[in-house]
Design a protein that fits this description.
The chain is mainly alpha-helical and about 90 residues long. It contains four helices and no strands. About 70% of the residues lie in helices and about 0% in strands.
């Protein structure tokens, strides 16, 4: 669906039960920081530039918007999974 996008958004990997099981509180904290960095990269990529213009001219910006939405959703889901694992392991926040 995001094949028409002219921007490349970073996509967070899906959070897995194996990761939740394997990581201790420190590892979970680091994964959360990494996921938040991906969120920052998504925001930076979304900034208006020549690719925004090219995307708009190509498909009215729909491809870029869909790619950003997919990237945002994947990152939010990963962070939610990490937070659940942190709560389950009673990690300090």
């Amino acid at each position: 669906v995001s094949g028409c996008a002219t921007k490349r958004y970073p996509i967070a990997q899906q959070w897995t039960a194996a990761e939740a099981e394997a990581l201790d509180c420190n590892g979970l904290r680091l994964e959360r920081v990494r996921a938040q960095q991906v969120q920052n990269q998504i925001a930076e990529t979304a900034d208006f530039d020549w690719r925004s213009v090219a995307g708009f001219l190509g498909d009215y910006g729909i491809g870029n918007a869909m790619a950003k939405s997919d990237a945002d959703k994947a990152t939010r889901e990963r962070i939610a999974g990490i937070q659940t694992a942190q709560r389950n392991k009673r990690c300090p926040v």
